[in-house]
Amino acid sequence: MPLRFTLLALLVPPLLVSALLVLFGHPAGAIAAGLVTLAGSALALGTSRVAMERQLRALTQKTQSLAAGMDVAPPAGLERTDDLAQLEDAIDTLDDKLSMRAAALNQEARILTAVLDGMAEGLWVTDAEGTVVRHNDALAEMLRPANGAIVGQRPLALIRNEALNDAVARACHEGASTRLELTLEGLYSRTLAVRVTPVGRDLPGSAAVFHDVTELRRLEKVRKDFVANVSHELRTPITAIRGYAETLQGGALQDTQVAPKMVEIIHRQSERLSELVEDLLELSRLEAREMTFERTQVPLALAVSRAAEGVRPKAEGKNQQIGLHVPPELVAMGDGRAIEQVLLNLLDNAVKYTPEGGRVDVDGAYEGGRCVVRVRDTGVGIEPKHLSRIFERFYRVDKGRSRDMGGTGLGLSIVKHLMGAMDGEVKVESQPNVGSTFVIFLPTAAGPTAATG
């Protein structure tokens, strides 16, 4: 309270009492009465001031505690004036409203964080200077910075890419949006499609969304390679058929010595073309999971015997021996037709790449709770650098030799897909100029006793 108001409160009552005593004819007692009144006023004012200060201190302490997030009860027995009580109630109401608002904002922030961290795409937000101020978990997984920190870093410190750094600068200073694609080098390189935009709504800074398109780009490359390989494989027999057909039309049809040879070549190339188309269709159905497989008990000795009969004429033509060593009790669980096709493809390759007078053997046994069949040949073998890619579509160790022998380049890829569809697997072991061994593993249909025998 200002000093003038304090003096006014002290002096007015005694002056008023003294004036009244003088007015009523008691001037002698006016001074004494005034002094007594002054003392009473001073005492009352002092007592009131002390009480007011206690209430104000209590209110101040409570307000500071509320600001710090703590709820403190007022001192016991403290009386409040009506004005201070109203002020305290107003502060309590304001605190309740602010607490509700803060809780709502906290809930919104938690929801936003959960949404951002649940995204498969990486995201960062920068301030007006381009410094990252926020990011989600997906971005941390993509970038994996050496020091583990992303917040507080500049784009160029996180990703060494000038185009991305320039895009962030344009978004912050010019409000421009940019799309770009970049590659993260490392043990496993990744391709990221990035969109950089200003934050918007008159807010400073920029936002960047990172899409991992590594698998998409790989599939695009596979598709392009596949189309190129198919085009090449189709072009060879079609060119041969067209060339010999035009030669026959040009007059060679009347040549009794040349014409039959040309017709035979046309027939052979048309068969190759038909095999290629059939293999392509089958591989497409396998990859699209459009084929249905029956899971039945398949005696592998019978399946191997049937497959061997399919290649025996070709083996006899090359003076090759085929040995079958599969016990009759070896029974697998799978699709009989698919297992025979797998064995036929492996035996056909073995005969094809084994020179005249060579040998092909098929062995079968229970191993590790599975049925195992090995197709061994004494052929040209495969160099180690080719083994990891031998089951890829159209992959050939020796392209010229494979085409001369009539292969489509799809047989082993079909084998791999068929085995995968039957919960099996196929492996290869080979040494150049010694031979190759293709091993297939199938679930066993026998009980535990047979599996351990």
Report what the structure shows:
This protein has 453 residues and is of the alpha+beta class. The protein has four domains: 3-107, no CATH class; 119-212, PAS domain (Beta-Lactamase), CATH 3.30.450; 217-287, Signal transduction histidine kinase, dimerisation/phosphotransfer (DHp) domain (Helix Hairpins); 296-452, 2-Layer Sandwich (Heat Shock Protein 90). The protein has helices spanning 3-23, 30-67, 82-117, 137-143, 155-158, 162-173, 214-249, 258-287, 300-317, 336-352, 384-387, 399-404, 411-421, 448-452, and strands at 122-126, 132-135, 178-184, 190-200, 203-212, 296-299, 321-325, 331-334, 359-367, 370-377, 425-431, 435-443. The strands form three sheets. The protein has a five-stranded antiparallel sheet, sandwiched between helices. Strand 11 (425-431) and strand 12 (435-443) form a beta hairpin.
With strands numbered from the N-terminus, the spatial order across the biggest sheet is 2-1-5-4-3
Counting H and I runs of at least 4 residues, what is the number of helices? 14
- Tell me how many strands there are: 12
Strand fraction: 15-25%
Supply Rg.
46 Å
List the helices and strands and how they pair.
Elements: H1 3-23, H2 30-67, H3 82-117, E1 122-126, E2 132-135, H4 137-143, H5 155-158, H6 162-173, E3 178-184, E4 190-200, E5 203-212, H7 214-249, H8 258-287, E6 296-299, H9 300-317, E7 321-325, E8 331-334, H10 336-352, E9 359-367, E10 370-377, H11 384-387, H12 399-404, H13 411-421, E11 425-431, E12 435-443, H14 448-452
Parallel strand pairs: 7-9
Antiparallel strand pairs: 1-2, 1-5, 3-4, 4-5, 6-8, 9-10, 10-12, 11-12
Helix pairs in contact: 1-2, 2-3, 7-8, 8-13, 9-10, 10-13
